[in-house]
Structures are given as C-alpha cells and as structure tokens.
Amino acid sequence: MAAPGVDIPRWCDTSFRRYCAHGGGTAAASALVSAQAALVWSKHRDWTAAQVLRVLEDTALRRWPVDTPSKYLGYGAARARQVVVLGRGRPGPPTRTPRRHTSTPCPRPPAAPPPPRRRRRAPRPPRPALSAIPVCH
After folding, report:
1. Does pLDDT of 7 surpass 80?
2. Between 3.40.50.200, 2.160.10.10, 2.60.40.10, 3.30.300.160, what CATH number should domain 1-99 receive?
3. CB of 83 within 8 A of CB of 59?
4. Nearest to residue 60, comparing CAs of 103, 129, 68?
5. Which helix (H) or strand (E) is 20 found in, with range?
6. Separation of alpha carbons 61 and 56, rounded Å
7. Cα distance between residue 42 and residue 62, in whole Å
8. In this structure, are residues 20 and 11 in contact, taking their beta carbons and an 8 Å threshold?
9. Could you give the CA distance from residue 94 to residue 97 in angstroms, rounded to a whole number?
C-alpha cells in the first residue's frame, strides 16, 4: 500500500503551536496507511485484519490489476473513504489470507560448507550484513 510521504506537515516544537512544511518519508506514509486501516476496522469491527487489508487493496487507487503490484506503489494508494463512506470493497472470508505477489521466488540460501576438520580450528565464516539478507513474503 502507498500513501503520501513527502512534505507532510508535522509539529516543529514541543508546545504543538507551529507546523513545519518539510517532513515525512516512510514513517509518515506508514502512519497514514495504518490510520486508514484503523478507520476501516472501526466501521467494520467484525472483520479480521486480513479482510481489512483485502478491502484496502481492492479499493486502492491504481492503474494496474490488483493481482500485479507495482514495484514502487505496491497495491496502490490507500483510500479508506471508498470502504467507510461509499461501502466499496470485497472483504472475502475471514479465514483467507490476503493475496501476495509471488512471481519472483525467494533465492535459496547458500549451501552450508562442509564441517571443518578436527585437526585444526577453522575460522568462522563472516556473518552476512542485514542488507544482504533477502526479505521474502
């Protein structure tokens, strides 16, 4: 899901009297999407988290099919108004998990090296950096 993340107004001081025009990023965008999910859930309290996510994906603003998420915008821009005010979206069954893009399989981890011989203590291989570990869904 996507939401605005550039030039989001935010408080500039601890007295909450002045806004700054520059701010945002992924923290602002994720807060906006989670707030929209909370709005949908407050309107439909009997829905599961999977159903809330599914209707947000179904009603998101996009110009591509819902089953092929964008590399940059995922399933599209979240639009809670479509669900809360206009009653759009298909929640589906409560036990079914939301769709996930799986056309690119996750790489297999490298094979473990053979165990070192007992004669001499082998140095431990370096641990991979966090950025080198793929995130797969």
Report:
1. no
2. 3.40.50.200
3. yes
4. 68
5. strand 19-20
6. 10
7. 25
8. yes
9. 8
Residue 126 tokens, joined: 């370096």
What confidence category does residue 103 fall into, taking pLDDT thresholds of 50, 70 and 90?
very low
Helix (H) or strand (E) segment spanning residue 53: helix 49-59
The per-residue pLDDT of the chain, averaged, comes to: 78
Q: State the chain's maximal CA–CA distance in angstroms.
A: 73
Q: Is 6 helix (H, G, I), strand (E, B) or coil?
A: strand
Higher pLDDT, 111 or 37: 37
Cα atoms in the 13 Å half-sphere on the side-chain side of 103: 5
How far is the first Cα of the chain from the last one, in angstroms, to the nearest whole number?
15
Segments making up each domain of the chain, as ranges: 1-99
Go through 69-105 and write b for each residue having 16 or more CB atoms within 10 A of its CB, e for each that does not. Answer: beeebbbbbbbbebbbeeeebebbeeeeebeeeeeee
